[in-house]
Amino acid sequence: MKKSLFFLVLISLSAGLFAQEKEVSAIKNVLQRQEQAWNVGDIPRFMEGYWKSDSLLFVSKAGPIYGWQGAFDRYKKTYPDRNAMGTLAFNLLRFDRLSPTSYFVLGKWHLKRLNDDLGGTFTLLFKKIGGKWLIVADHTS
């Protein structure tokens, strides 16, 4: 009986870890698609990783911006062409599961450009909405 209970617990834990690995992999895929889109100068495709909602929150040194359109407009203004956009690379540092439908992600970003390099840190709140992992809050510095 004790062995059966032990194996049942072990199987349950393994299934939970597999589910978390699958979710983290899906979130990493969102971020990889964002990198790829950015690096070909495609801000609209980059924005597909964000929740298309007025409730999206984007925070940078310029302060908070609310809504998908506001974040999109900020990216277009700040990075008006390929030279300004440079080449983006993410270094993903941490994935914390907050619930079955939300993750906190910590990482670093780096832009390599012709005349300079930029970089910083970001924290993202991902939520699973409509079966897709989307960024609902982004704090980038």
From TrEMBL:
<feature type="signal peptide">
    <location>
        <begin position="1"/>
        <end position="19"/>
    </location>
</feature>
<dbReference type="Pfam" id="PF14534">
    <property type="entry name" value="DUF4440"/>
</dbReference>
<feature type="domain" description="DUF4440">
    <location>
        <begin position="27"/>
        <end position="135"/>
    </location>
</feature>
<protein>
    <submittedName>
        <fullName>YybH family protein</fullName>
    </submittedName>
</protein>
<dbReference type="InterPro" id="IPR032710">
    <property type="entry name" value="NTF2-like_dom_sf"/>
</dbReference>
<keyword id="KW-0732">Signal</keyword>
<dbReference type="InterPro" id="IPR027843">
    <property type="entry name" value="DUF4440"/>
</dbReference>
